[in-house]
Design brief:
The protein has 209 residues and is mainly α. The chain contains 9 helices and no strands. The protein is globular and about 55 Å long. The protein starts with 7 loop residues before the first helix and ends in a 12-residue tail after the last helix.
Length: 209
């Protein structure tokens, strides 16, 4: 088993940063604390709603957030970009189908597990979720979610979008919708690259705050 695929039970709470030490709230400087507070307000409630772990009971963030706290200016910029992509109006089933496709293509175990939970909350069928994670074509998605997932899969696997797929995407998503999907793909390619580079493991849900 590779280090990246190990779980929190293999590492223990102090190894949930993978290659990075987890940053304690009391050790953060001013800009880092501002990012920490923003994560508390936005990410912690989302994670609690969807049922995955982003923060330990002692207040330390895990997942990509531990890495991003080290670059608070970049983290703040990414937060603004993320908020704009979210506000662009993609339905949640579309978002989660795309995010799972990106996370599975790397693969990024933390991302996969977190968005497996979010996809369930968004109403994606369990069989479709697992098919996406295996890199297969899922059944049971709504029309926009299905075309967005196919678009993401084509870009992640073949690095091209066939004409027929493009025309279908324009019909169902429109040009602004396609661009929003592309921005979402870029967002989660960045997150996945952080998780893979630093070998961030999947946490044990019992460590959540």
């Amino acid at each position: 088993m590779s280090t990246a695929m190990q779980s929190a039970q293999d590492f223990g709470p102090d190894r949930l940063g993978g290659r990075l030490t987890l940053l304690a709230p009391e050790d953060l400087d001013g800009p880092q604390t501002q990012v920490y507070r923003a994560l508390e307000q936005r990410v912690v409630p989302e994670a609690a709603h969807d049922g995955f772990t982003v923060r330990l009971s002692d207040g330390r963030f895990i997942g990509p957030f531990n890495a991003l706290l080290r670059v608070p200016d970049l983290a703040a910029g990414l937060g603004r970009f993320t908020a704009e992509v979210t506000a662009a109006g993609l339905a949640e089933d579309v978002r989660q189908a795309v995010i799972l496709t990106v996370g599975a293509a790397w693969p990024a175990p933390y991302e996969i597990e977190a968005h497996r939970c979010a996809a369930r909350t968004a109403g994606l069928p369990e069989a479709a979720i697992e098919a996406i994670i295996r890199g297969e074509v899922p059944d049971g998605l709504g029309g926009r979610a299905a075309i967005a997932q196919r678009l993401a899969a084509a870009l992640m696997k073949q690095r091209e979008v066939p004409d027929e797929l493009y025309r279908e995407a324009v019909d169902l998503l429109g040009e602004p919708g396609i661009i929003t999907v592309l921005c979402l793909i870029g967002q989660y390619q960045l997150i996945s690259s952080i998780l893979v580079c630093f070998q961030v493991p999947v946490p044990d849900l019992e460590t959540a705050s």
